[in-house]
Amino acid sequence: MKQHRLRPRAPFAAHLLVAAFACMAPIAAHAGAQIEEALAPSVASGLSRAIADNPAPSNYTERADVRGWVAQMSPKLASRFPDEAARAEFLATVHYEATRAGLDPQLVLGVIHHESNFRKYAISSADARGYMQVMPFWVRLIGTPDQNLFQLRTNLRYGCTILRHYLDVENGDLYRALGRYNGSLGQPEYPTAVMAAMKRYQSVASVAAVQTSDVLAH
Questions:
Q1: Which of 50, 52, 108, 213 is the most buried (most CB within 10 A)?
Q2: What is the CATH number of domain 31-217?
């Protein structure tokens, strides 16, 4: 009889542990706690060159593709950036830094949406900072002390460069790269949430490209 009474308790305890971890998971998934890892000198040098100060060309927003993308995204962010000029500057910076790093601008918006909810001065419990929740150790590893992670272009330059680095490390596996970016590699919550947020910001052009590729595939 004692054995029959003991059997339910082990699963119950296990359920409590599972529930406890489930409660903690969203906190970890939102912290943006990128893990500091030793970088080979060549990698560190390459990343330093990637975040070197190189602003967008003065006529960047005059390009038809950029102007069209900003116009499509602007209504989606009107509540986040009521000032139209600030909104346009933010979106143009996102587009430039994302494409410069070889990333989809919608992906970068998804990361920002989930990491900081578009708050410029957001700081996580792990001390990650700014729009893309960049950990300060990156400035020490690949940057210079004068770089401010709360500055729009600096934050996006670092965030996009780091995400590109993780994509390269993971051979293009976005799911795993996002896990590394968040410091939650192997856990599904963060990459799933970012990909869901990314869909909020799909542009007409990106939807058309997906539909075209689907047609060609068949």
A1: 108
A2: 1.10.530
